[in-house]
Amino acid sequence: MWDSSLVLLALAGLVAGVANTVAGGGSLLTLPALMACGLPANAANATNRVGVLVQSLSASGVYAREKALDVRGTGWISLPTVVGALLGAQISVEMDEWWFRRVIALVMCGVLVSLFVQPKRWLESSTERNAFGRVAQTVLFFGVGLYAGFIQAGVGVLFLVALVWGRGKDLVEANGMKVLLVALLTIPALGLFLFQDLVWWKEGCACAVGQLFGGVVGARLTLSWGAGFVRWLLAIVVVVSVIHLFGWM
What we know:
Oligomer: single chain
Structural class: mainly alpha
């Protein structure tokens, strides 16, 4: 007999997988869905990483097969990202999340403005525009990792900002690198949650089934429809994320 809650989790995972791969913010859907199925908040946060990992690996596979995954430089920027994530997870129990979420909401408001004030920066790749040096990029990706460890939801948006502004990628190129970085970031985090016995496998696998297909669909949409489509979807995701972070929904 089908468990209706697992079917709904798979559907939520499918939508979240597409959203996460194209832009970000899919966890704003899967986390509440997991908690609605009876998972405590910390278990939902841990269990959510199962689907995120599967979705990121499936999307990375599509980008790699289509030769749209640029791994050059990914190795060294993944290190500060992972370190930041581990630190963010550690300090999350001590910092006032109310203030942290609102600071990130204000940052995302800035992202929304930049999407329309300087649209070409998001739509065109340019190595000449890559004004951020290695030290600045290290700090930037450390900050994204810090956020990922603390809250995680919406981290795909911040990865796109870091890759577009810090490394001069357009949104299609940035998406390929983003999904790979999210996968690399999720592996140690999931391992830590497994060690703490916080992962609910039945619910996590239900989400993962949906996110597996969502990652493939999202990657193909990005490659087929291009940076312009990603920019508009990203704007929608940022608006929803800001509303969520301010506690208006």
